[in-house]
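In response to reviewer comment 3 from the previous cycle, which asked for concrete evidence that the modeling workflow produces usable outputs, we include below a single protein chain processed end to end. The sequence was submitted unchanged, and the resulting structure tokens are shown without manual editing.
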Amino acid sequence: MTTMAIDDLPAPAADVLRRRARAAGTSTAALIREELISLARTRVPVDAVVEFLESERPNHPMPEIDSEAMALIHTYDLPMDAWSTFRRRAAAARIPLTAYVRQELLTVARRTTMQDVILEFEELQQLNPGLRLDMDAIIASARDARAE
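The workflow returned the following structure tokens.
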């Protein structure tokens, strides 16, 4: 997983991210970049551990920036504050930086929205033009299942 390309993610996660990018009229790389920036700038539970380590154990080891991490940094051209945040969170979780970022991307892809459900069925219908889908019924069923 040298560049953390979209194809390095499990197919269902990659499909969700590709659909979101198409719907947004942007590239998958640009969508992932925006998702990662947003994740880095949103407080998460591991941030409490990060703060503890920084105040109580300032010499806690940080994950090294290896060739995979450098490729990741260059591929998504993220601001330094985002990488700093991910690096500190990875250190707190005691996992490599690329593994932490991959885990975050998988989490983002698994948090499906109603829009994701609609996009998936629209894609299915485009791939199978003879398929007759009642989108209103699908949306109602999805809302019921999600208790929205």
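Residues 11-24 form the longest helix (14 residues). We consider this sufficient to address the reviewer's concern, and the full set will be provided in the supplementary archive.
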